[in-house]
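Technical annex B. To support the medicinal chemistry partners, we prepared a structural model of the target in complex with C2E, based solely on the information shown next.
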Amino acid sequence: QAKNNGRNQLHGYSSDLSDVLAERMKLEQQLRLGIEQDELELHYQPQLDLHSGKLKGFEALVRWRHKDELRSPLSFIPLAEECGLISRIDAWVLQQACQQLVSWQQSDWPDATMSVNVSAGSIEDGSCIDLVKQTLASTGLVAHFLKLEVTESVLMRKPDDAARTMKALRKMGVELSIDDFGTGYSSLTYIKRFPFSELKIDKLFVDGVVHNAEDNALVRAIVKLGQTLNMKVVAEGVESESQQTILSRSGCDMIQGYHYAKPMPAALCDDFLATLARKRVSAYAALDEVSPRT
Ligand code: C2E
Ligand code: MG
Ligand code: MG
Ligand code: MG
């Protein structure tokens, strides 16, 4: 009935609107079903530590495998946030990512970290505190290997609630990272109020770091800012060797991007890790050959 009312009132362009609504409802229904039927999957993107030249950890990125398509989180996370499905996605992603990290830590990578994107809502309403607590307990993951990524928008909407949640998470030992830094509208005063230990420079700035003087200066400024506030700085979306070199010289701590590795399903990450481990072994072997024997 409400729908009919809307249709009459919006006579003229009503069909466009109801098409949009119908499309949305269909998508929501599909997603609800998809979650139940295990259609979500996680891909993991390796991060490189620029100081040691070694693998630092991973960021978990969700995808939705629907029929023959692999859908980007950008196509369904905003919808999930609006229709309340996001809490189930958050819970599933966190559990899956922590479980996977424990398995990699036990195989050959005891210090690897896992970054997980959390929705603004679960920070604002505090629900991620219990969720994280339960997930750490059930997987046995040590808290400080887990990094929760939040975007600047979280800081603006309900800053007091967000700050309270973040302090509780820090108390548990979990690390907090500010994602897509520079693309939002938060002021420096805001950043200072929150217990972030990491800052991620958005790809937008990284894209121009080699050829655009302004972007280059901005990246340097952001790195300085991070260092001043005692945060580790990660550059996102690094696609070339020259970008990596400049970032490294600017004092950036870590990079993530296609240049080092793309986001991959767990099985492909296993292969990636196996290759790294082989290189490590052969590097030691080479060292052994040149060092004098006793
Ligand atoms: P984000 O957290 O900033 O993730 C980085 C995005 O950049 C990812 O896109 C990643 O695939 C992409 N990327 C990484 N390196 C490169 C590169 O070198 N070149 C290019 N062109 N792209 C690169 P993705 O996976 O599509 O995720 C988009 C956004 O969706 C994420 O941005 C994050 O905000 C959100 N998201 C992803 N997974 C989750 C999740 O599990 N929960 C929530 N709440 N949000 C998520
Ligand atoms: Mg992220
Ligand atoms: Mg980002
Ligand atoms: Mg993003």
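Notes passed to the chemistry partners:
Residues 45, 61-62, 72-74, 77, 93, 117-119, 149, 179-180, 236-239, 256-258, 263 surround C2E (ligand 1) (CB under 6 Å).
The beta strands are 40-49, 54-66, 69-71, 113-117, 146-151, 175-181, 198-201, 232-236, 254-256, 264-265.
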